Amino acid sequence: MPNATATSPYNGAMPLTRFADAPYFLMFRDNWSQSANWGLFIGDGSIPFDHQSPDHGHFVIWRGDDYLTKGARSYESMAHGDFFNTLSIASGCSMNGADCSGTAMFDSEQRASLSRHRHRDASPLFAYAMLDADGQWNQNPAEYQPMANVESYRRHFFWSDEYVVVFDRLRQKSAKAVTYRLRAMCEPTISGDTVSQLSVNGAHKLMQRTLAPNGVAIEKLDESALWAELEDWVVPIEERHWQSVIDLPAATDVNILNVIQTGPASMSEFDALAHISGNGNEGARIGQWVVMFAAQEGLRSTVTYTINNAFAAMWHLIGDLQTGQYDLLVNGETFGNVVVADQDNTALFQLGQKSGNLTVALVLNPEAFACSPVIRANRHTGSLSIETGNPVTLSIGLDAGNASGQIADWWLLSYGPDAQLRYFDINDWGFVPGFNALLMYQLFGFADLPILEMNKLSPGWHLFLFGVDTMPNQSWNPNMVFWDMISVNVK
């Protein structure tokens, strides 16, 4: 694993879940025995060079002692997404004289990534990541224009124990047909919106149900026939199995939600499966989990949803949230609060012993930790005008309010006539180019503390900002920053 610390599997504590970047992947397993359940979610994909695997968004699931789904080893280029568990777009490529589907990154200008992730080894064991294939469209008409038609593409992937939730949210500049693909090691059985498939050894089963859109048509394909014209060196014969595909009609906005459950070959039903939609939500309740995302692109500050016949102590993972602290309400009554970080934009919580029909609401509370910073120049607030050459003394103060003692990021920034953003560097004791926090420290009250005297400000407007961010992560979290600013006009 890239960047992983070497650990002995015999006497070391090996991680059960791990995220790695460059290349991007999410690894997960329930233990390190030979009968473990494990899998992989791939986010890196490939930049557009020949012989690179078009596998961004692909996932692998192994149960006990055999694969339930995986990709096909192949010697191919970015032209085809037919060999992996990916969402593909009709791209004009052909295989065996028939149309095939390139991936969402077909002929793109940059690779994909996993831009959000959250996972834990403690109970409840789970792993979540979001594939981000945005930002690949080149708008400059004077430069090479890629064939990719993608405006944004996100694949949310969640795993816990025997459950997987896959939510694809694709936005295209012009409508093109889309295919969702799930590979099978043995011939699958299709019944309505549900696919069932066994491992090669017949001991394990994977069931997948498509919750959205409703009424999809699922087709199973024999890869031996599908790839009959391909040479063995392109896709080895032993790699040719089966796949089920969902062909969606051409549209600019595409959402598709699939839920997977694994278990023994005797498994015949999903565990407490229900579709959650409406109020801008798209998600599922399965087993002990509620997993939900936004139906439209963008981060939300308020979420409301209803769970019927909820179990006590169910876990909720709610994605696509703005960073900050949220008030948590159940059936209209305050239950507690939960903090959302910018690494994953998710809220994770339980509702204790509450059960039955529950209406859950998350509401961003920007004043959960309220405080009032102030910045002055020559003891003035708001704005100040001075003549060139006159000194300016910056001072700061803070009314910590109910945030006293809270750990926070402290910020001190400047922006001058040269259009250069600078931050205050404690080591240099002055402003240097860049955008970084001053320090991470607990909040406390103080008044009018002189911080810096400047004698040679250039003519023009200078802006100085002092702020504290009550989500301490060395990043600027707009919903959690309390700030004050002063402008100085040097004439």
Largest β sheet strand count, sense and barrel closure = 11 strands, antiparallel
Approximate shape: elongated
Rg over alpha carbons: 27 Å
Low-confidence regions = 46-50, 135-141
As an assembly, this protein is single chain
Report the end-to-end length measured between terminal Cα atoms.
Answer: 58 Å
> Quick check: average pLDDT?
86
Strand content: over 45%
What is the number of independent domains?
2
CATH-scheme architecture of the largest domain: Distorted Sandwich
SSE-based structural type: mainly beta
Helical content stands at under 10%
Enumerate how many helices there are, as a single number.
Answer: 1
Q: How many beta-strand segments?
A: 35
Report the CATH topology name of the largest domain.
Beta-galactosidase, Chain A, domain 5
What would CATH call the class of the largest domain? Mainly Beta
What descriptors fit this protein?
491 residues; mainly beta; Beta-galactosidase, Chain A, domain 5; Immunoglobulin-like; 2 domains; eleven-stranded antiparallel sheet; seven-stranded mixed sheet; 35 strands
Architecture overview:
This protein is mostly beta strands and 491 residues long. The chain folds into 2 domains: 17-267, Beta-galactosidase, Chain A, domain 5, CATH 2.70.98; 372-490, Immunoglobulin-like, CATH 2.60.40.3880. The chain contains 1 helix and 35 strands. It has one helix at 223-226; strands spanning 17-20, 25-29, 38-42, 59-63, 66-69, 87-95, 98-103, 113-120, 126-132, 150-160, 163-184, 189-191, 194-198, 204-212, 218-222, 242-264, 274-278, 281-286, 289-294, 302-310, 315-318, 324-330, 333-340, 347-350, 356-364, 372-377, 383-386, 392-399, 407-415, 421-425, 430-433, 439-442, 446-454, 460-469, 481-490. Strands 6, 7, 8, 9, 10, 11, 12, 13, 14, 15 and 16 form an 11-stranded antiparallel β-sheet that branches. Strands 27, 29, 30, 31, 32, 34 and 35 form a 7-stranded mixed β-sheet that branches. Residues 46-50 and 135-141 have low confidence and may be disordered.
